[in-house]
Fold each of these.
Amino acid sequence: MAIDYTKISRHMSKLLRHDPGTLKMDKAGWVDSYELCSHLHIGIDTLEHLVETNDKKRFVFNEDKSMIRASQGHSITTIDLELKEEIPPKHLYHGTKDEFLKSIFKEGLLKQNRQHVHLSDNIGTAMNVANRRNGI
């Protein structure tokens, strides 16, 4: 039986970004990698594959891969990713559908129920984000 990486990745996103359920998550969003594997019924090799191949780099391990967390996109307001301030690139892009442009021009970019507005440093990534959005 083939592994459905997309399904597992989406479930990981829900757990690590929005609702850890019974998983123990610290204030920086870290969860024990082996506990997550057990919860998802996968091996550590599958987890490593998901982290390494995720096109948006949604997940990150700590140095010894004993802990994992989502690198962005949290709706859990108590998570502090301890992000460092950086000078942004000259151009940043926001992936959105045309139907939301009027509202954006009127109200600006709003983070909605997340901690940050996601911007990309290239048009391709922004277009991929826009094409995945379903209006929620």
Note: The chain has five helices and three strands.
Amino acid sequence: MRKTVALSLLVLACGSVQADTTVDVSRIYGKIKFVDSFPDYKVKVVDSFPDLKVKKVDSFPDSAGKWKTVDSFPDYKIQIVDSCPDFKIQYADSFPGPN
């Protein structure tokens, strides 16, 4: 009974329960557009224990964790959220990539 109630609360809080919720963050790099709706991924910015360390770059976003912010023709659309993220990021000046 308690598991059912807890699962129901999770569904209400985060929208839905998916079978596989893991994201291969090592493949999230390139041209990124920050959006308020219809994202490819929902992301929470944290100060510690991230899934991915992100370095903002102006050119050559060609490896894991290197993001170039664009307004058109993005590789991924990202929405910054406070709860129920697909994965967590931390902005870094060096050594971007998965943790």
Note: The beta strands are 30-34, 41-45, 52-56, 66-69, 76-80, 87-91, 97-98.
Amino acid sequence: ILTHLTNCIMKRLLFVIAIALFVTTANAQDKGDMAVGAQVAFGTGDGFSNIGIGAKFQWNPANRLRLEPSFTYFLKKDLVSMWDITANVHYQFPLGKVVGFYPLAGVGVMGVKVDIPEVDLGEYGSYGGSASDTKFGVNVGVGADFNLSEKFVVNAEVKYKIVQHWNRLIISAGFAYKF
């Protein structure tokens, strides 16, 4: 009898927990939710690493499904600067009211510019200038959201950007304001 009673209590407890999780997740990423935010990123690949800063917009066209266009400018390092315009799709898995996890996939355009300072070579003239290139690519990765309040969210993200000759691992952290 004690075993049967324990099993019944455990089943009811699991049922109550499941209902509580469903209720908290249903409110976490509702259709129509929007947010704007900023991020700091570290990009590395092909022997080159640099820091970036960026902005993002988030919109949930459906529950749990979030679209996020973003722009990141990677600061000049070793004569090279980069920028990245990306549109990612996040599918959100809330883990309670405070923490959420999401895989992401997306497309983007990445630009690279190299500035070589003018160097006087004497009788041979001078050398210097700049070159730039832009390419399309795809992103895959994962991220996590941490709700600080109903309006403020902090997030961390790791994604791999696949671009011809410029594959990069990008690690970022940011915040967003929901409205």
Note: The chain has a mean pLDDT of 86.
